[in-house]
Structure formats: structure tokens, C-alpha cells
Amino acid sequence: MKLKVCGMKNENNILDVADLKPDYMGFIFYEKSSRHFNSVIPEISEDISKIGVFVNATFDFIRGKVEKHNLQGVQLHGGDETPELCERLKALDLTVIKVFSVKNQFDFKVLEPFEDVCDYYLFDTKGKEPGGNGYTFNWNVFKKYPSIKPFFLSGGIGPNEMEALLLFLKRPESDLCCTLDLNSKFETAAGLKDYTKLKDFRKKLVEANYIKEDL
Asked: What percent of the chain has pLDDT over 90?
């Protein structure tokens, strides 16, 4: 299991969270977001993949941010991004994560056009905002997951969800869940992550043998 901490914003906070060695850190390039990133990413370990989060952005806009911030991947969170855009971004040797929003049910047929043009799917809670809504969706939908593509699990995951999360990870429908995406439930303010909460959450995953202790 890997960890992604998304919605990073403050330079010192980025450096603090980087000490926890998440596999990915997410930076949101969407002006309407309270976690909009409009600064310079400090130097962090090359073992951490920097992921740019975009909402229905153009190819040229995305490519500009990738080049400016030396991003290793992109997360397409708008819902209107096309398979053609994914394919063009993959050609830049980027990790491409296509996001789909879920509530109580989900039609997995919408994944079919993206099967060959992205590296991962990310499933987030359908809410008022494109992301960071702060509550989970019904994970039972994965009982009908038809793909063999690994996916990120997002949407309201926090310390209070640990028990339910560990139960989910023991079930067969979680077999392709490769990464947990953490955001609003670990914040003291929008874009400002609570280091202690993240560390404790990580420790519990280590104790449950889902990630290795390497701090």
C-alpha cells in the first residue's frame, strides 16, 4: 500500500510532510480551490513523486505546470478530460491518474475508454467540490469493479475511518487498491496538514502490515 498526501500548499508544511516519506504529494493547480498552489515547490526527496492536480485544464496549461515544477505525474480531476488528453500526457512520460467521482452507486462502464491511456484510476467522493469534500463514499461499489487497473482510494479518509478502512482492505474487492489519498481530514486549515495525525495514521498502517516501516 502506498500513501499520497494531497492539497499541499505551505512550504514549511510541505517539508514536514515530506519527512514522513509519502509515495506521492499532490499540488492543486485549480484557482477555485482553497488549496490552490501558486508558489514554488521546495526541494524534496526524489523518492516522492510530485503530482499536479488539474480540473478540466488544457494540455498546454498542464504541460506548463509540469515543466515549471518538475512534476512526475498528473491527476485529472475535472470529469470532462478525454482519453485523448490522457494519451498525450502519457506521451510526456508522466504518470497519469484519471479521477472518477462516486456516491452510492457507480457505472463502471465509463472506465472503458480510459483503460489503455492512464496508469491509475482514482475514486473520490462525489460532492459540491471537485475534491476535498471531507466524507467517504460507499466502498461496496468495488464489489463490481471490472478492471485490472490499480486504483487510488480517496474521499474523506481520516483517523476516524481507520477501522472501516482496515476492514475494507481485508476484503477481496480491495485487491487492486494500491494507494490511499489523504487530504482534508488531516488539515488544521485548507492546505495545512497536521503532521502528528499523518504520522499516527501511517503508524497504524505499518502495525497492520500494509506499509513498511522505513522512517
From this structure: 91
